[in-house]
Design goal:
Layout lengths: L1 H16 L8 E5 L8 E5 L4 H18 L12 E5 L5 H13 L3 E4 L4 E3 L2 H7 L3 E3 L2 E4 L12 H21 L4 H9 L6 E2 L2 H6 L17
Parallel strand pairs: 2-3, 3-4, 4-6, 5-7
Antiparallel strand pairs: 1-2, 7-8
Helix pairs in contact: 1-2, 2-3, 3-4, 5-6
Protein name: ATP-dependent Clp protease proteolytic subunit
InterPro entries: ClpP/crotonase-like_dom_sf
């Protein structure tokens, strides 16, 4: 479909331009080819603009995985993650899109998924971890304006929504407990056994390492 091709080209162009924005992750798209499924790559710090980029790219990937515009690749979409976190509200919003579309999430060998990135990993319909995954307590940057009382209320809201989100993704409360037990200025790296215990891995085979443009 000619319209879809133009839309895809526009989305890919905009996501590539985002590579040059400061303090932004890069949401990149690799179309399907042969039996290789579409891939969305999320790298760097998660910020608000990444949600807008992901929404457009996710729709393209979903359509192409199911054979719109050409023969279907495999019916799935891989979302590869290499991020040390960022805005948790953005992470939860992207995570819910990943879950709604039944995308798979992957942390490839040599990559890391830390802090808010774990919310994305948790959303995957299938999950593969070949790299490192780390958690800690959610935090808010000090804006120098918000009072201690208001900040305490904000933290209470974040913790409640984090617990609700993990429950929504079908993960055990023990993962939430592990997060809360780790100070926000430290990282608790999860072992292979931890990943299994917390439900962050499901057995899907690793794919060949395809390097996305940096």
């Amino acid at each position: 479909m000619h319209g879809l091709k133009i839309w895809r080209a526009s989305v890919i162009f905009l996501s590539t331009c985002a590579c040059f924005l400061p303090a932004s992750s890069r949401v990149l798209y690799r179309p399907p080819a042969g039996n290789r499924p579409p891939q969305i790559s999320i790298r760097g710090e998660l910020v608000q603009s990444d949600l807008d980029a992901f929404i457009g790219i996710a729709e393209i990937a979903r359509l192409e995985a199911n054979g719109i515009d050409h023969a279907p690749a495999s019916g799935t979409v891989n979302v590869t993650l290499d991020s040390h976190g960022g805005n948790i509200w953005v992470a939860m919003s992207i995570g819910r899109i990943i879950r709604r579309y039944s995308f798979a999430t992957r942390v490839e060998v040599g990559d890391s998924c830390v802090s808010a990135c774990v919310y994305l990993l948790a959303a995957g319909h299938g999950r593969y971890v070949g790299g490192r995954v780390g958690v800690h307590r959610p935090y808010l940057p000090n804006d120098g304006v918000t009072s201690a009382r208001a900040k305490k209320a904000q933290y209470a809201g974040i913790h409640a929504q984090t617990k609700q989100y993990l429950d929504e993704m079908g993960l055990p409360t023990s993962l939430y407990d592990r997060m809360m037990q780790t100070p926000s200025d430290r990282v608790s790296w999860l072992s292979v056994q931890d990943l299994s215990t917390y439900g962050l891995t499901r057995l899907i085979p690793p794919s060949p390492r395809h390097v996305m443009p940096r």
